[in-house]
Amino acid sequence: MFKKLLLAAALTCGAAHAATNPLFAPLYTADPAVLVDGGRVYLFTGRDEAQPGGKDFVMHEWRVFSSCDMVTWQDHGVPLNVKTFAWAKARAWASDIVKRDGKYWFYSTVEHATVPGFAVGVAVSDSPTGPFKDARGSALITNDMTTQTDIAWDDIDPGVFLDDDGQAYLYWGNTVLKYAKLKANMTELDGPIQVLPVKDFVEAPYLHKRKVGGKAMYYLSYSEFFPEQTAYLTGPSPTGPWTPRGVIMAKNLKTPTIHQAIFDFNGKSYIAYHNAELPGGGEYRRSVAIEEFEYREDGTMPFIPQTKTGPRANPSAACKR
Ligand code: FUB
C-alpha cells in the first residue's frame, strides 16, 4: 500500500525545488500567475525555450508548481500548451487563473491561427494542476475586437478577477489597458470592452483586492515604460475611479519585461515577477522569482526590492499535501 502511494505521488508530481530566487532552475520561466487554493499556493508560469542569443520569445507551454510553505516547490509539469486551443498557432504568453464553482479557469495569451494577431483563450479544469481543456472552442478576445491601436499584440496579458459579489472581470492589453465584465459562465464577455486610460501603461494588468480599515481597496498593478517597471493604482471598486500610487518594483537589468502577480498566502503578502538572473538568462530566457512584503497601514504598497534569498519559510497548516 505504502509503495503504491509513493508511486502515485511520483507520477502526479515532479521534482521538488527548494527556493532561492530565481526559482525553478534549470527551467527558464516567465509571466507568473498565482492561485491560492486548499491552503496551497499554485504558481503558473510560461516557459522560455529560446536558445542562448535567441532574438524572440519561444514559448509553447504553461507550467504549474505548488508550495505549502513558499520555500519548497513541487513541479506538476505542463497542465496545458498552445495545442490545447485548436484555433491557436503559437506563443504561450502570459496567463492568469481563478477558481469559480469548483472549477479552475485559466485565461491565456496565444497567437491566433486565422485572425491576424494575438488573442485570449480560456481553458477549464477540475484541478489546478490540470489537465485543462478549451472552455469555448474559440478565442474569447481576438485582435479585431479592439481598434485603439493597430499593433498585433495589443490583446495580450489577461488578468482575471472574481469579486465577492460574484461578478468577474477580465483586464488585458498592451499599450492600451482594456477590461470587460465576464458572464457567470466565465467564457463570455458580459457587456462592452472598456478602455482605461493609464499613462505610460505597457502590459501585465493585474487586479487584487484587500480590506483596509474595514473598506475594500482594489489594486490595479501593471508594467509601465520599456524596459518595464511595476506600478499600481488603487480604487474603491474594480472599475475605479483610480488613484496612481507609484512604482513598486524597479526594472530588470537583463530583460526589459517584469510581469507581476500579487497575492496573500498563510497570513503574508507576496509578489511574483520575473527577471533574468539564472545563469544563461536574458531577454528571452527569464526566471520567475518571489518577494515577501508588508502593506503600509493605509493600505498602500511599499517599493519592493528584488532579492536573491526570496521569501522566508511560511508553512501552512491548512495545506492539503
Ligand atoms: O512572455 C511574453 C510577454 O512578455 C508577456 O505576455 C508580457 O507580459 C511580457 O512578459
From TrEMBL:
The keyword Ubl conjugation does not apply. Residues 1-18 form the signal peptide. SUPFAM superfamilies: Arabinanase/levansucrase/invertase. Residues 301-321 are annotated as: Disordered. Pfam families: Glyco_hydro_43. It comes from the Bacteria. Keywords: Carbohydrate metabolism, Glycosidase, Hydrolase, Polysaccharide degradation, Signal, Xylan degradation. CDD domains: GH43_Xsa43E-like. The keyword Hydrolase applies. GO terms for molecular function: hydrolase activity. InterPro entries: Glyco_hydro_43, Glyco_hydro_beta-prop_sf, Glycosyl_Hydrlase_43_Enz. Belongs to the glycosyl hydrolase 43 family. This is Glycoside hydrolase family 43 protein. The lineage of its organism: Bacteria, Pseudomonadati, Pseudomonadota, Betaproteobacteria, Burkholderiales.
